[in-house]
Amino acid sequence: MALPKEELVEYIYKMVEAAQGKKQLKAKDIEKMVLKEHPDQNKNDIKFAIKELIDGGRCVYTYFGGSFIELPRVEGAAKH
Amino acid sequence: MHKTPLLDQLESGPWPSFVTDLKRAAAKKPQTADLLGLLERSYVDKITHWKHGGIVGVLGYGSGIIGRYTDLPDEFPGCEHFHTIRVNHPSAWMYTTKALRELMDIWDEHGSSVLNMHGSTGDIIFLGTRTEELEPCFAKLTEKGWDLGGSGSAFRSPSCCIGPARCEWAMYDTLEACYELTQEFQFDLHRPSYPYKYKLKLSGCPNDCVAAVARADCSVIGVWKDDIRIDQSAVQAYAGGELKPRGGATKYDKLDIQKDVVELCPTQCMSWDGKTLKINNRECNHCMHCINLMPQALRPGTERGAAFLLGSHAPILEGAQLSWVIVPFMEMEKPFDNLKELMSNIAEWWSEHGKNRERVGELILRLGMRSLLEAIGVEPAPQQVRIPRANPFFFWYQSDFDAEAKGRRYDTRQGFVR
């Protein structure tokens, strides 16, 4: 069953949190994982749920040879 | 100021030197002085001292900022953070001087004053700023109507040729198409959601001044469908030397129509009897050679649109590939809904099946053209055969063998027939 908007945002956040340090997730990975559990979920809802997490600063885009969605952290390469 | 004996040698040649420019900027900007020192150090050590990537960006965007740091921050503190900002360029890179001054003022205030006009995708590249300057710089840019361009696994800033603004050969409005598609794909431009980069370039005619066929995953190149228009009296004038070849842009006074035009036609579709030039338009592959030589005698047809090609990229291991035709001819009228839909369908198929860092052209090679065409609902066409008689995209499916086993005969033009 499709998740309501707020629940979907939290569902994705937990997914990113669980993957942190283990696997870097791309937006499409997240979409596929959501659809596996909730096949009737609208793809656009997933897209905008990710946007909400990014806009709210709870997740960030990272670039390590490809673009991923991760939890914010202190940049290792930055001295300060 | 760091001592830079190796870099100084680059100022001794006959051409303008970037070292001279950097030294001028370094007088006002300590980070640019460190940039010179760091570059000198790399020349000595023969390795780069840059690291790139990471998590820096502006809130809400995953594109447009490329994090860059040095591994020698104590020695060159000005380069400790030296991030790149990509600013989305306007269609065909046309600016007012006022707009350029505004951009330069913003970058003088928030960055190193070093920039690149333009990067190979087309963006204005601001080189070198600190993390804490990113948001204020972005705010100033947006206040003046600018936006960041694409980076990472995103739709990259589209670019186009000068098109109908200044070129007689434009088969469609490249500037408008570029603007429309930039607007249409805003989400994907700022929020990386593809397996890898996805570039779009639009050329108004087959001269392909933005080299779309070689530099963009999606190449939209203007073409015509009907016959080349011929003014026989002007052809005579070129033959007689009254009109200069290429509008006077060659050293030749007059054209040898047979040798310079007819014999250099790649499909040999032209003939010249000394009085009349004939073109077998069915065989013409729109190379533009004859039209470029005799622009007052030959003009493209009036039924105009664009060919849509896909797949060019330059991977290090496999070598560069050119785009190949997916849709031989499509109407190109505002708001370009057909192009938007096609591009969205392709992106959807690629996102679904592509591996991390796999370009759309590489996916076509891996899964086959048939898979792409089925997914995007485009009919196979002869023009899609990239190398005639050496088509690598034909894959046999079990259903084909089953059909043959049931006694169905295969016809090259009709497929399986009873």
What attributes does this structure have?
heterodimer, A: 80 residues, mainly alpha, 2 strands, elongated, B: 418 residues, alpha+beta, Alpha-Beta Plaits, Sulfite Reductase Hemoprotein, domain 1, five-stranded mixed β-sheet, four-stranded antiparallel β-sheet, 15 helices
Written overview of the protein:
The complex is a heterodimer of chains A (80) and B (418). Chain A has a single domain (5-79), classed as Winged helix-like DNA-binding domain superfamily/Winged helix DNA-binding domain (Arc Repressor Mutant, subunit A), CATH 1.10.10. In chain A, 49% of the residues lie in helices and 10% in strands. Chain A is built from three helices and two strands. Chain A has helices at residues 5-19, 27-37, 43-55, and strands at 60-63, 67-70. In chain A, strands 1-2 form a two-stranded antiparallel sheet. Chain B is an alpha+beta fold. Chain B folds into three domains: 5-143, Alpha-Beta Plaits (2-Layer Sandwich); 159-225 and 303-384, Sulfite Reductase Hemoprotein, domain 1, CATH 3.30.413; 229-299, Alpha-Beta Plaits (2-Layer Sandwich). Helices cover 33% and strands 15% of the residues of chain B. The mean pLDDT of chain B is 93. Chain A binds chain B through residues 26-28, 47, 50-51, 54-55, 57, 60-67, 70, 72-73, 75-80, and chain B through 51, 53-57, 59-63, 66-67, 69, 73, 80-81, 131, 151-154, 187, 191-196, 351-352, 356-357.
Per CATH, what is the topology of the largest domain in chain B? Answer: Sulfite Reductase Hemoprotein, domain 1
Mean pLDDT of chain B: 93
The CATH homologous superfamily of chain A: Winged helix-like DNA-binding domain superfamily/Winged helix DNA-binding domain
* Percent of sequence in beta strands of chain B: 15-25%
As an assembly, this protein is: heterodimer
Distance between the termini of chain B: 83 Å
Please indicate the count of domains of chain B. 3
Q: SS-based structural class of chain A?
A: mainly alpha
CATH level 3 topology of chain A:
Arc Repressor Mutant, subunit A
